[in-house]
């Protein structure tokens, strides 16, 4: 196979690779290609002592640039709880969290912006105070070990959210106030950042 790189319209391309045994063309999904490119990220929050009326969340502001956030999420809770995605929220406080680049040898950092100051790039926050919810764009119930959201039983195309630019989002789990304390809850966000070509 040739290792030559072609330049077409200012974009660099390598000729398609093929499987040596079957000559089938090798193709990877676009979201996986973004991992290779170093522009796919993750943020995770786990609460190992989740009480029945507790709330945990991850919040961020999307970049104001042409970069679009393509995001999937997954949540889990052993307590019965409500899961919401809030859009256009007003938040304060919380703990700074630096998203992890899913290509571990990449020096790239996320274009996500701190939701409390609206200017500091490359970080999100966990367990913020939500002063104004904004619009609830997703709402569901989980619990007793049931996991929902993200890619659970779905393809990425069925669960991918393309988020609005320059907007604060909050992914929130809230216990329903009934049942045992000392449960477990988690939120996992996976996303890639991509500018449209047109």
Total domains: 1
Radius of gyration: 19 Å
* Structural class label: mainly beta
For the largest beta-sheet, the strand count, sense and barrel status come to: 6 strands, antiparallel
What's the total number of strands? Answer: 16
Q: Average pLDDT, to the nearest integer? A: 85
Beta fraction of the residues?
over 45%
Low-confidence stretches: 150-157
Cα distance spanning the termini: 32 Å
The SSE string, one letter per element, is EEHEEEEEEEEEEEHEEE
Helix content: under 10%
Output the number of helix runs.
2
What attributes characterize this protein structure?
single chain; 198 residues; mainly beta; six-stranded antiparallel sheet; 2 helices; 6% helix
Explain this structure:
By secondary structure, this protein is mainly beta. Helices cover 6% and strands 46% of the residues. The protein has one domain. The strands form four sheets. Strands 3, 5, 9, 13, 14 and 16 form a six-stranded antiparallel β-sheet that branches. Strands 8-10-4-15-6-12 form a six-stranded antiparallel β-sheet, with no helix packed on it. A hairpin with a 2-residue loop joins strand 1 (6-8) and strand 2. 30% of the residues are buried. The model is unreliable at 150-157 (pLDDT under 50).
């Amino acid at each position: 196979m040739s290792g030559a790189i072609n330049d077409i319209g200012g974009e660099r391309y390598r000729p398609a690779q093929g499987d040596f045994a079957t000559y089938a063309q090798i193709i990877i999904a676009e979201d996986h290609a973004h991992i290779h490119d170093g522009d796919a990220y993750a943020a995770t929050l786990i609460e190992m002592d989740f009480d029945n009326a507790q709330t945990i969340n991850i919040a961020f502001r999307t970049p104001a640039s042409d970069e679009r956030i393509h995001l999937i999420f997954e949540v889990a809770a052993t307590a019965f709880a409500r899961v919401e995605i809030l859009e256009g929220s007003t938040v304060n406080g919380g703990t700074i969290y630096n998203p992890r680049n899913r290509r571990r040898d990449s020096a790239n950092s996320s274009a996500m912006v701190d939701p409390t100051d609206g200017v500091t790039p490359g970080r999100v926050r966990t367990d913020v105070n939500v002063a104004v919810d904004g619009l609830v764009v997703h709402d569901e119930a989980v619990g007793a070990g049931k996991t929902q959201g993200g890619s659970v039983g779905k393809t990425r195309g069925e669960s991918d959210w393309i988020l609005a630019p320059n907007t604060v989002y909050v992914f929130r789990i809230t216990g329903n106030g009934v049942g045992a304390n000392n449960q477990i809850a988690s939120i996992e966000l996976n996303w890639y950042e991509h500018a449209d070509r047109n």
